[in-house]
Amino acid sequence: MRMIDLIEKKRDGLELSPSEIDWFVSAYTNGDIPDYQAAALMMAIFIRGMNRQETVELTMAMARSGDQLDLHDIAPFIVDKHSSGGVGDKTTLAVQPLVAACGVPVGKMSGRGLGSSGGTLDKMESFRGWSSALTLDRFKKQLKEIGLVLAGQTADLAPADGKLYALRDVTGTVGSSSLISASIMSKKLAAGADAIVLDVKTGSGAFMHTVEAAKDLARIMVDIGNDAGRKTVALISDMNQPLGHAIGNALEAQEAIATLHGDGPADFWAHCLEVAGQMILLAGKAPDLDAAKALVTAARDDGRAWVKFRELVQAQGGDVAQADNPDLLPHAEIVEPILSPQRGTIAAMDTGAIGWAAVRLGAGRLIKSDEIDAAVGFVLPCKIGDAFEPGDTLGFIYANDAEKLAEARESVLAALTWSADEVAPLPHFYGIVE
Ligand code: URA
After folding, report:
1. Which range marks the domain in which residue 378 is found?
2. Is residue 182 domain-resident?
3. Burial level of 286, CB count in 10 A (0-12/13-18/19+)?
4. What percent of the chain has pLDDT over 90?
5. Is residue 290 flagged as an active site residue?
6. pTM
């Protein structure tokens, strides 16, 4: 087969056959197709779309690109979760230890920052020495020993997603439901969990801007999961404003730690409780969602979840002193407030623009080789529906460069829409796809 034929076929809106998709995935994974041709195909898929059959074939080919774990020699039932990507979304950092602390093993494969959305692995790498590059043996050993593991795509695990994910991040090809679906579900299938809770975001900071688009994406992924024999549900959650307060890697790690100590922002805790509760419910550890949430809350309140978080940092080589004392995490040189320019109520936030502002500060990548600056970002406690007077503090910018700080301030202020009237707060969830 020739790559140019596949690119032209998709460019012209035609359907790719299973053998063409399979060939592309294995040839690109093996390094036989250059990035520029793979990027052209990603863009053609982004613009032309893929039908359901092509999406399923792409997911399965990507899952087959490395090993597919069978973890039943380790535990009878393992759960996993995945978010479709959002701004300030540090859910995994809190939810994984919460669920593991309830006695449900969580084996998880995560990703790095993608477009305007932050990545779990980048956040965990704020801890000096922490690594997500685990061999299969190490993945299994850790899951058995401490009941939680957080891996990245490697040569063994979903390598096709590892390469395509990094390419999509910097080629404007993230927000395609087929590519998101294949990326997420290939990792979930390869990592071998029996049950998966998907957190599909919708709104100005999500890749799916409408509830309908989020539900469509959720439906494809839930079907793929269930067809593969995994119990899969998807929550449709709001991303019209950042989740919690912190945006940026070390700042988010710090917020997750505070949350595990019972001091996190209310919206973030409510989100974690729902996601963790659904995971406990799927694992059959509670008769209903309320009972599942009670177990999760108890695991936070008596410190068991915090112990699990420490174990996760330590087991993967991270400096646990930074977990115990978050002041030791990377810290920005310049911290300045963002002041309200007027009297009024926040009516809307362009959350994607806030995410991109964090990327430009250094919290994400504009090209593949960019190094992440773990220290930079925002702490933005302001929410839609909050009222301010001129000069009130909306939040803070953390930067290591004065010019970038000034640009970030402008971007955040430009991302806010104000109203003279009262504005109702937004719902947190829009439904569940089962
Ligand atoms: N998360 C992923 O793992 N992949 C995507 O494409 C989007 C979110």
Report:
1. 331-419
2. yes
3. middle
4. 95
5. no
6. 0.95
